[in-house]
Amino acid sequence: MIVTKFGGSSLADASHFQKVKHILSENPDRRYVVPSAPGKRYDKDDKVTDLLYLCHASALQGEDFSPNLNRIRERYESIASELQIPFDFSCDFAAIAAALRSGASREYAASRGEYLNGKLLSAYLGFAFVDAADVIRFDTKGVLAEDETNRLLAQHLAQHKYAVIPGFYGADESGNIHTFSRGGSDISGALVARAINADVYENWTDVTGFRMADPRIVKDAQYIENLTYRELRELSYMGATVLHGDAVFPVRKMGIPTNIRNTNDPLHPGTMIRTSFGQENNVNTITGIAGSKGFTVISIEKDMMNAELGFGKRVLQAFEEHGLSFEHLPTGIDTMCVVIRAAELKPLMNSVLNRIQELVQPDQITIHEDLAMVATVGRGMVRTSGTAARLFTALATRGISVRIIDQGSSELSIIVGVDEKHFEMAIEAIYDAFVRM
Questions:
Q1: Has residue 263 been placed in a domain?
Q2: With a cut of 50, which residues of the chain have pLDDT below it?
C-alpha cells in the first residue's frame, strides 16, 4: 500500500487535479490520499489558507469577511465546474460563515481549506472521504495524541479500500479543531502511512526532490537520489524546506521510506528517504549543504570553568527562564558559546545577559551578531579522510573566516558559523570543493 500526500501547488487548479488523478490511476496501490488546500496558481495569486486567515481576522474585528469567503468559494466552484463534478458547496460555506460569525477559532478557519479540498478530491476520484477531525486526535492544549491518532486512523481506514483524508488538521475529543504548523499536511500524510503500515509514503509537490544545495544560491545544484532520515533532519533543521521536519518521525519509527516526487514531472524518481542505505548508494562524500542566517553567539569566558561543577547548567538556566532554546553549544576549556536565533533573543537580550552574570559571574561576555550557520551533511563523511580539511580549505581560499565550528560525534555533519555577508559564498565554496571539484 502507498499513501500519497499532495501539496497545495499540486492541487491549485483543475489541471492539477487531473494530474493527481492520472498519478493515482497509474498505480492501484496508491490507496490513501492526503491533500493540502489549493495553493497559488501564479506568482501574485493567493493561497486559500491565507484567504481563510483573512476571513477570520475580519470576523474577529466585526468586519465583513464575505468578499474573501466568496473568492474562496469561487475558487472551488471553478475547479468543480472544469472537472464537471456535480458538487454543491452551499451547506459547507454557510456552515463556515456561521462559525466565523460565532467566534470560531483561527485554527478552525484555516482548516477549512483542506476540508473542502478533501471533499472535492474524494468526489472527483470516487474515493471515500474521511474527515481528519475524526481520526487525527489532539489534546485540549493542541498537542498531538499519537497513540490515539494511530488507533483511530487504523480503525477508520480499515473500512475503506480507497480514501481521502485532509491534511493539516485534526480535533480534540470535544470536536475543537487544531492544526499543525504551516506545511503540516506532510505530518498528516506520515501519520496515515504509519497507521496502515504503508510500503511507501509518497510526498508529491512542485519540486523534483531535494537538491544538494539551495538552487537560488547554486543554480545547477544536483538532485539527491537517496537520503537517510538522519541526514534529512540535519538538512531540514538548517533550512532545507522541501518536507516538514516533523513529518519524518511517524514513518521513521516504522521504517517506512518516504519518496519526494514532482506532480509536474511524475516520471522522475525524485528523492528516496530511508532509515539507511548501503554504501554503494552514496557516491559523494557529502549528501547536501544547507544553512540559514539570523544567529547571535553569546560567548561566556571564565578561568577554570571546566572545574566548576554545574557551570553549563547554570548558563542554560538563564535561557530556560526566558523561554529560549539554544541552537548550538560549542565549548572550550574556559569558554562556552551559546548560539541562538537572533530574532528570539533580541527583545530579551539585556535580561538574559544580566541573569547569566548573576548565575555564573563570568570574567567576560562577548556578543557576536549577524552570524549565519552552514551545515555540510553526509553519511559518507565518517569514512572519508580529509573531509574537514577540504571544507575549511575551500572557505579559506575564498577569504571566509570561520567564527564557530560544531561537529557531532556521529560525524554526520560539520556546522560552521560565518558572517552573514559570506553566507552564499560559503555554500558555493563548499559545493565547489565537494561536488564540482
A1: no
A2: 280
